[in-house]
Amino acid sequence: MAKAIVATTPDVTPAWKAQPARLNSFLKDVRSEMRKVITPSRDEVKSTTTIVIVTVFIFAAYFWIVDSVMDRIVKFVLDSLGRH
Q1: Comparing C-alpha atoms, which of 15, 17, 18 is closest to residue 26?
Q2: C-alpha–C-alpha distance, residues 73 and 69, integer Å
Q3: Smallest Cα–Cα separation from 55: which of 67, 65, 47?
Q4: Number of helices and strands (H, E) in the chain?
Q5: Spatial distance between the Cα atoms of 29 and 42, rounded to a whole number of angstroms
Q6: pLDDT tens-digit readout, 4-18
Q7: Cβ contacts of 48 within 8 Å, gap of 6 or more
Q8: Domain ranges of the chain
Q9: Model confidence pLDDT, tens digit, residues 17-48
């Protein structure tokens, strides 16, 4: 005769019943982290904005130069191939 194996499981609540507690814990963590956020001062915002604008212009100039050089190279190659 076969014996039945009974597994004893701890008292586990279904996942859907644990959702409100998890949501509440998450919102408490969010609130705690938001208290740590510091708004930058006006001078900090000005300086970082200036740095970003200057950096954008530097990269724009760099890419313009690279594009111009590559344009001349491609035109030279195409012209030299077209003559033959």
Answers
A1: 18
A2: 6
A3: 47
A4: 2, 0
A5: 29
A6: 665 565 566 667 777
A7: 40
A8: 42-84
A9: 778 889 999 999 999 999 999 999 999 999 99
